[in-house]
Design goal:
The protein folds into 2 domains: about 170 residues, Jelly Rolls (Sandwich), CATH 2.60.120.810; about 100 residues, Arc Repressor Mutant, subunit A (Orthogonal Bundle), CATH 1.10.10.60. The chain is built from 11 helices and 11 strands. About 30% of the residues are buried. With about 280 residues, it is of the alpha+beta class.
Length: about 280
Amino acid sequence: MIAIPVPEAVKQQAQLSAGEISFVNYLERGGFDKNRVVFNQFAISFVLNGQKAIYRHEENTIIKPGYGILIPEGNSIMAEHSLNKNKYNSFIIFFPARFLLNFLADQQHQASSKVKRTPDYILFERTSYLSTYIAQMQTLIEQQQTLSPAMAAHKLNELLLNLYELYPDELFAIAGAQSKAEKSLKNLIEHNLFNNLTLDELAFLANRSLSSFKRDFQKLYGVSPQKYIRERKLETACADLAAGKKATELYLVYGYENLSNFNTAFKKKYGTTPAGWQLKAAV
């Protein structure tokens, strides 16, 4: 699967660009398939119709109308699709990281211990103020207006100030992470165990080739990624079975295409079927 670079890949969408800042009214049919997306700039995306699923290094979420998300530079797995007859629609602002760094340099911020780790993104609700902001920018795009780089920076700072007033610590954490080393491979694995991502997709999120991902994984865990992920899922399935859930409720959750494959894998590890395991656990 080819990685999609943005904002380069959306150059044909209706937009207003000035310097290195772009305001994009994104319209696509979309689909349920996941795509690999490389964010070469920061993005602030507002879903206007449909929904966007996004997987980052340690976190994943679904963005629906009424919400926006700030996405830092880096690799993502994404799927965007409409929930009705109209096209998927989002309004996106792309900008280089230094615009956020320069904005934060002007803020009188006192460090807080509220943010324990660097977030992969900031998900936020779209206020009436933000809705007005989006409508104004869409009108400028529709009218094919032009902006000077200075005015584009002003409009971006207006948006960043709104986010800063809501999430100051998270913004500083994300900005600070731009100069740090990659997040740990272990955190990526543990936070994506149950997202049913392929090894290729996990390697992409880790910014590694598949071969180097497998090699680094083997060094870290002492087993292959396939075996580790399979066994961790089955261990968790045991807890679900003990809580009274049936195998018919679980096999899709843990990434098996059908019940037969789940039963076979479970029996291979535990010597009995899920139903048999439940009977023994109840004794």
